[in-house]
Every structure is written in C-alpha cells, then in structure tokens.
Amino acid sequence: MVSSTSKPSSQQLLCLADVGCNMSTARCAVVLIIALCCAPAPVSAQTIDVARFFAGAALGLGFHESAHLIADGAFGANPGVRKVSAGFIPFFAITHEPVSPTKEFIISSAGFWAQHIGTEITLAKHPQLREEHAPMLKGLLAFNVVTSVIYAGAAFVRHGPAERDTRGIAVSADVDEPWVGVTVLAPAVLDTARYYRPNSRTLRWASRAAKVGGTLLIFRAAGREQPAVK
Ligand SMILES: [Zn+2]
Questions:
Q1: Is residue 100 part of a domain?
Q2: Which residue of 25, 71, 145, 173 is 20 to 30 Å from 65, comparing CA positions?
Q3: 9 CA to middle of ligand 1, Å?
Q4: Looking at the domain assignment, is residue 227 inside a domain?
Q5: Is residue 228, in this structure, part of any structural domain at all?
Q6: Residue 110 has pLDDT above 50, yes or no
Q7: Ligand 1 centroid vs 165 CA: distance in angstroms?
C-alpha cells in the first residue's frame, strides 16, 4: 500500500507554509518597490532588510521543492504539478508516479532533509546568527522552522492535501502520521532553541540527533519492500 498510488506523494501541507509564502512574496514585491522609491533613507534600509528576509524564505522554499524534484528525477518518478487548494487558498502540489516504499520515503522526506542541511550549515557557520545583521539567513531559518511546525500540525490532526509530506512518510514507513509529526517538530523546536542559546552543546547535538532519528524511519520503509522474485 504505497501511499499515493495514483496520487504522488510529496508536497504540500504547505497549505499555509508554501502558499502563504508565495502570496506574501508577491504582495511584498509591490509594496517594496513603492517603498523603495518613496521612503526616506532610514525606512528604505529597513525595507531592504525585509525584502532580504523574504528572499531568504523564498530560497528555503526553493531548496525544499527542488529536493523533491531531484528525488523524483533520480527515481524516474515522472514528477508533475497538480493544482490543489487549502480552503479558499489555491496552490500547487508536486506529484509523482507510484514508487516503492523506500523511494516514497525518500521523495517525501527530501524537502525536510534539504531544510535540515540548510539549517545545519547556517547555524554551523553563524552560531551567533541572532546577534548578526543577516536578514536573508534569518529568513531562510524562519522558513525552515515555520514550515516544519505547520507540517507537524497537519500530521498531528492528519489533515491537509493527500500529497503532504508527512502522510507520504507515514504510509511508506507504516507508522502513524502523528509520530512523523513528532520527528518533524523536534528539530524545529531544538533549532529555535539553538538560535537563542547558541553556546549549548546539548541543544546542538540533540537537534542533530533528532534529525538523524527521523531519517532512521527509512529502515521501516525498506523492510516493507517486496522480496525480489526468483
Ligand atoms: Zn515538501
């Protein structure tokens, strides 16, 4: 029962995350152009920082979606895009053809793995990020944390588009989706704590352990593979 059979897996719970991000970015672009032309110097500088923050968030979205597409491509899963909606908000879902449990797990997890890598690189190179003037990096980190929190919420209540990542992971590894939500939420909470307490080795390694722990579910997915026919 490889999940999504006719429905691809990846993406989207982003009901709020991705969509909200896209819509906010578009609106901000218009507002920022006006503001940059008309506002006095101090306000312009602040506005540019806001633009950089959203650019960082958009970069995070790009990494997340690209990771799904790369995994789809690597497995020849023929990725596509399907229009879906969350309530009255229209957005898109990246779809793919039915694949084995292990491949489904990897495709559905790829977005989170991209987030984990991005966050680790960011916090490793900028452990004191909170004290730095780095709006783009803060936007990237914020996207990673907020997206994980929203995905975790969707997993806890088992609600959202059928293509949502946490469902794909849960079905492929044969675990209850709320537990997948826990593996998604834990790194987000710990990374947020690291942002505020950068000198804590405990938080740093607990966060990394949580990321690896979620990845280990791949062995459950692998255990569900059909034995080769002799
Ligand atoms: Zn995703």
A1: yes
A2: 173
A3: 9
A4: no
A5: no
A6: yes
A7: 5
